[in-house]
Each structure stands twice: as C-alpha cells, then as structure tokens.
Amino acid sequence: MRRTVLAFALALVGSALATLGPSTVTPATGAALPSCSSSTWLSAWYAAPGDAVLSQPPLEQTFRIQVRPLAKGGVARYRFSNRFGTGPVTFGHVTVGVQRAGAAITPGTLHAVTFGGTARVTVPRGADVVSDPVRMSFARFQKLLVSVHVVGFPGPATQHGIAEQTTWQTAPLSGDHTSNLTGSGFVPLPLLKTAPTLPQSIPYLTGVDVLAPRSTGAVVTMGDSITDGTEAEVLPFVLSADNIDRFVSYPDQLANRIAAAGLPFSVANAAISGNMLLTNAVVPIFGPSGLSRFGRDALDRSGATTVILLEGINDIGQTYASRDALVAGYTKVITAAHERGMRILLGTLTPMAGTLQPPAYGPLGEPTRLAVNTWIRSQKLSDGVIDFDKAVRDPAQPSRILPAYDGGDHLHFSAAGYKAMAAAVPLSQLKRPVCS
Questions:
Q1: From which residue to which does the signal peptide run (predicted)?
Q2: DSSP three-state, residue 149
Q3: Using an 8 Å Cβ cutoff, are 81 and 122 in contact?
Q4: Number of Cβ within a 10 Å radius of residue 105
Q5: pTM of this prediction?
Q6: Which CATH number fits domain 214-429: 3.40.190.170, 3.30.1490.20, 3.40.50.40, 3.40.50.1110?
Q7: Per-residue pLDDT tens digits for 201-239
Q8: Contact 208, 76 (CB under 8 A)
Q9: What is the CB-side half-sphere exposure of residue 197 using CA atoms within 13 A?
Q10: Confidence at residue 200, expressed as pLDDT on a 0 to 100 scale
C-alpha cells in the first residue's frame, strides 16, 4: 500500500514540476508600464492543497469553510481544486457570506458563487477551477464562510490537511445546505478542536483573489507546519487546541504588521504541515515536495511580488537530508523566483532541540541545521535573509526555542513565538509592484 501511495504521489509531482516552467517575458525597455490606479487580481487568502488519500470522501453533503482574507475586497473570485481527486467532482451549488458566529452567516450577506454563469460545475480529476467574480464587500480580516454542496460520491476530496481552523459539514446524504443562514445541521470538524488524520481540514477551496489596485502586491509564505501555524503536536496528527481558530500563524501576524504600517501588501500562505522541500511525503497528507509545487502554489499566486521560504527542517528530521542537498534545493527555488521577476527572502531554520519526534529531529539533525543556517546567512543568491532562528531561540541554549515562544513540543511555536517570527520580517524588503 505504501509503495502504491508513493508511486501515485511521485506521478503527481512529475506533472507539477512543469509549473516551474520558463521565465516570463520582461517588457522591452521603454514599454509603457500599467497604471498603478488600474485594477488587477490579488491573492488575499490561500490554502495549499496537499493530498486526497487521507481525506473523508464526501457523500452528497455540504461543507462550510472559514476564510479570513488578508486584504479587503469589493469583488472577489474563489478557487477550488480537484488536483488530487480520483475522478471528477461536481459542485451543485456554492455560496459565500460573512460569518456571524460558528457556522452561522450574517443575514443579508449571502451571495451565490457561479462558474461561467451557472451554479453547477464539474471539475475534472487533476484540475482547478476559478469562479466568476462575485460583488461583495468585506474588510481585511473579516471572516467569510464559503459553502460547497458536493454532488453524489466523487471519492476522496482534495484538501489542505491539518489546518489550524474549524470546518463544518452536514451529514452524509443531506444534500444542499449552502443557503442555510443559521448553521443548524452543520457539525464542526475537527471535533473537539483536535486535528485527527481522517477529517479533512479545508476541502476543495484553495484560494480567494480580490480585485485590487495594481499598486498592491502579494507576499507568499512557503513552508511547512511552522509556517502553517501549528502550535504543538500532542500525538501524531493530533494538535494542541490553543491556536485553532485564533489565526496567529506568523503569516497572519505578518499581515497584521503590514496592515498596521499601511503598506500595500496582502499575504498568501502556501504552507503545508509536514511538507519537505526536496522529497515527496510518504504520508500523503504532508503533500508533494516544495520543489515540485513551488510554481503552482507560490509563483502562480495572483499579484505575487515576494516569496518568503522557510523549509528544510522536515527534510533533516525525516530523511537525514544533507546541507549540500538543501543548498541545491534552495538554489533551484531562488532561480525559479527570479525567472518570474519575484523577490525571494530565505529564512533560517528554527531550533528543534528537545523534540521527541523521530528519526532525526533534535540532536541528530542539529549539525545539519547549523550548517544550513550558516550557508543561508552568508549566501548572496536570495534577495534577503530573515533570521527566524535568532528571533526565537533561547540565548542561553541556542539549540532550543525560548520557553516563552515554545508551543510545547520544542519544534512549533506559541502565538507569542509566531509573533516574534512575524516581527523578524523586514517590511522594507517586500517588493512593491512595478507600475506608473
């Protein structure tokens, strides 16, 4: 079974590698720049899909998904994926409204989401779909609820797994509840604010783009659970409850800093918990390698100008990856970003001493982590370095996380730790769009 799953993942990764593709064409010298006052699509929220193998297959029911956009909107479009499905999936009806509380929607805010002018859409296996523009005003950080009626029994659902937020669903065979305002009949998942393996955290919905001034850019954060916002793993695939639905990941708190500073950026979080830069995950929920998904999940985000990469700790901890192998991987990612005209900032790997996760987290992987960080701090290939390690380590024991920042498992972070990481990002190094 493991070989079958791994072969399936490798095949997916092979097709995804094409997304790095050739560089985009730079306008000729003297060509007129677009006006900064004109509008373009901007990624305001993203949830990178990782797999479908360990999802709960839907059965003629409705999902209700939280979205906390990191940019305001008056017109938005919604992205859905069947990237890892085993066959086509049909959405019978999709709606969006402002969250009132839990699964309840504020009356008067419900809007239909259509695809090519129709409510029903079938997404082929391996494909993504983008909705028609929806006219609906919402503020930055105002939580929305996107409801998706899944028709029939399409098989496992493409998902962003192990997310730090609740998703609701109706009972199997309950049909279309996308227009339900009260939230009655919706059951919260993960149950009891844990994140077990089987219930998918964010099924199908992968992104929200807003129509924004061309002078606004998106900062894409690429990485693993440390970027996704996990506080601590109590047991494998079971998370500490404290960070769930609090939206305190470092990308969320970076967006808070950006908003407070009045800067023209949104943030799109392209992290997948458990993800590795170099290797496809043996456990499918951890997703294809960062290298294989970098184009699709990071470079292709609408309006993206800057990428922040913090990845490699799982390569060391799970596969004993060497310093040289990680350097080669970083070099490929940096090159791909530059070919697309984007700025890329490289983050140092954070401490892991004291963690009990096998096989090579902690002391066995520490020499490699230090060697990788030495290279990151000294290299000149990227456009800048964010010293996350220095921001969160204990000065008295540099191989350990400062106790106030430790999420509890000595690998992930508390809300205060993620705030320290966000504070380490130099806002002056975020690239503004080029327009006149």
A1: 1-18
A2: strand
A3: no
A4: 24
A5: 0.91
A6: 3.40.50.1110
A7: 899 999 999 999 999 999 999 999 999 999 888 766 677
A8: yes
A9: 8
A10: 58
